[in-house]
Fold each of these.
Amino acid sequence: MLDAALAQVPAALRVPDPDGRIPVLVRTDAAAATGEFAAHLAAAGVEFSVGASFAHLDIHTALAALPTQAWTPAYQARKPRAAETGIQLEPRDGAWVAEATGLIPLPGWPPGTRLILRKERPHPGAQLRTTDADGMRVTGFLTNTGRGGPARQLADLELRHRRHARVEDRIRAGKDTGLRNLPFHDMDQNRIWVAIAALAADLLAWTARLALPTAAALYEPKRLRLRILAVAGRIVRTARRRLLEIDPAWPWADLITTAHARLTALPAP
């Protein structure tokens, strides 16, 4: 699945740099925290950030070896206020991060793999696990991103990894595009249905990425259908030109025509 996903990335973005690295980041939860998968990622030349499976790591030894001063505040992102641009970062109250690389062995993991831990006060009513310590919820991830450079502080890397949870948004969008229920009794028919639904989700994701402005690119399928896909329009040809006619009274008419112009301006694959 990883190789199929990488094959969809434009070829120009898969050109390795002099160190053999491809500017692609692969993020997963702890289900992919195996040395074999990490070795495959390293061989592919991509960076990875995978959730740490504490079932195979002596996390308590690492926590005991970390001094208090090793923990730094974690970040959280907030929406920009007036007169601000871009996502704003600020310290997250009650959450800290620290690097535990070298404190416990990581057999089978590629050279340069780093272990970064996060501890946070649990939410009211949350139950602690055996891997938690001192009343704190402890999580972690492994990455081969090196030290130094912009956006490579521990808090930046931890926030970057935590954002992999947006995959849940894609799952929700997939359910809204036909994956919520399988409509047939026959397995082969359901396989075809799933393939069509996956193709639809793929088309929506790439259309949003290539054609829509930043705010509209975050629309989920229901909103896309309401504002863009289900709107009546006509493609007319005149004076050797092809024009898209949309009712100018529609509130999102400019968004539709802008998206259409961006798509038609793209070179043929």
Note: The radius of gyration is 23 Å.
Amino acid sequence: MSEISEYKTIRTEIAGVPVVELATKFGGSPVYVYDASTIVKRCAQLCPLGVVRFAQKACSNIAILKLVKEQGVLVDAVSAAEVKRALTAGYAPKEIAYTADIFDADALEIVTGAANGCVVNVGSLDMIAQFGERLGDAAQGREITIRVNPGFGHGHSNKTNTGGDLAKHGIWHGQIQDAVALARRYGMTVSGVHMHIGSGTDFEHLSKVCGAMETSVKQVGTSVKTISCGGGLPIPYTSGEEFIDLEKFAALWHETVAKLERELGHKITFEIEPGRYIVAESGYLVTQIRAVKRQAENMFYLVDAGFTHLARPMAYGSYHPISIVYNPTLGAAPEGECDVVVGGPLCESGDVFTQEEGGVVVKRTLPAARVGDYLVLEVAGAYGSAMASNYNSKYLAPEVLVENGAARLIRRKQTFEQLIANEIF
């Protein structure tokens, strides 16, 4: 039976710990809270599919990386600092994949230095040349993988579509043999093909991706040992939606692996690179209602978290379930519900959590609430804290991990001194 999502609009606890306690104990509101058991559960579902690499760009706190590592999951990095995060969390270089379309100076230095031996997954011909030149004689016998843009893409938003002729990602499918020849020039071998074409998936489209992967691998030839389907596994953000059918997903890719093994005459390792699927549901942004006001016919709940803490609604028009937590110090909870707009404290019209793509503000039906009650933006573990900023000089929120019923701080709330530490005056 398919797993069905269910999100309620009134909440009292997260992973067994009272929300009010979480909101007051670790530096105050707003605060990010993660349920470790959800992360463990999702890792366990994915590991039977093949080699799993966590796309840490979704949630890069080192405590989360360590938790994921304990589940036998490898890691993907897209910057020099993400490579360093992985090393700090205890990953060996060979367990890290660096995936990008360019090498900046820091990234080139670390993948040829402290993280030498990590998987280098290149998204441009220039990366191959720069890597080969930097390695010099050490390039002889070195393996790389290539990220291929198959000429089409997919995604819930144009901003998450990473394939097609207007996408910057990957080596164009018509240049695969150029990439192989360039690698050969430096004595390197293309040992893997990676293809990630956008967030979300449907099986009709996935079949097309599998076909493109088969074509691309055949162009590279018998040196290919691994294929990676990238990430983009969706999770439900609204109640009543079904989770992806992982068995059907795996069957399509394993069929592709079998075809390629027959074609190439040797074993192919299948890799998957999820981010959102592992951490999204685990994360909650707890924020306090600081004003309840009416503008003409519209009711607003204004909270102390803004798009500096959770950018997805402003950036993509993303939907997040919202729940209300009643503050027991305020007395009996109010009854009823109302249609409200939920906004933050920033000096921007776009600082609204209830909006659709294109910035269209919409209302959400929520329980009646008061100033001092709490509001939880749910399914916020992916691209939440990781995309946070200091716009309006807002502090980065603390982060808390709840594991086995105990909550512990895994990131302190930023201070003013930290905010201005690199400024010279």
Note: Residues 2 and 242 are 6 Å apart (CA to CA).
Amino acid sequence: MGIDLIGTAGSRRTEYFQKAADECGTALNVIDWSEVADADLSGDVVKIDPPSYLTSNLLDMNEQVLEYRARLKKLEQDACTFLNTPAGILSVLDKSHCKRVLQENGIAVTQMIAETVYTVEELQSVMGGSRVFSVFLKPVWSSGAAGVVAYRKYPGTEKEVAYTSCCVRGDELVNTKTIYRLEGKEEIRQLLRAVLSLGAIVERWHPKASYRGKSYDLRVVWQFGAISFIVARQSSGPITNLHLNNSPLSWRELGLSDSLLAETSQLCGEAMKLFPGLSMAGIDILLEKGGKQPRIIEINGQGDLIYQDIFYENTIYKRQIKELRRL
């Protein structure tokens, strides 16, 4: 039996998982995604990392995700043991399915008001019918903040605003590392048409708790039945992903109570029971403004790359190595 990592050679994920294996005295076989089709995984213990997308055009990225989904389905047939099964990864990669499962089982989440919307007309109908005029739009199969739009329409006026890290350039919808604030009606419509063409989940825009004038949420890494790591993500706007030049913050600085941490842990544990193919996940948690009630924003079955951990103790990956050795 061997331990295999399917990933991208030379990536941060691969580099630091290899370091964790070396420090734990464990042999690791790295299989690049370009070599997976010819790999024999029989009897091995396998971790699957996502492939690296070599495009910033979300329309092309959507095609690459489609190919990735097909590869995961094929891997499901292999006679090996997975850290996270391909089916488990797929179950949360589909944002609509993941949020539906959570809501149907009474898990506190940021509310989904529509599973998949494709046009601006559909969006306006959904918002008007639900009387929700501040929403997040997220392409159903995207990852990170790719294609995410925070959109607010002010009832009774022509005023609207959108925040996003993508922009329309000719025929391309380009993902960037900059957050844009849009107010012009036509530029917002152009953006919405491009994003919605991919098929997007629509969620209520819940106000987030704030610290020193900036809003924040939490990325919780849950592993093997417990919280393994927490990092707060702080932003002056509504989109908090750290790769968008937002600020990481130690959750200890927030002064969160023991009871709130216990409630967050219980919430994560109840959610993870609904996805038995996952031993690990990155869970994004919103703490509501005011009472700080925790709500799950989304679950990422490969959301364990935390720079605030790998550049220091690398505890997340070391724990995975130790657990993989037991399988």
Note: The first strand starts at residue 3 and ends at 7.
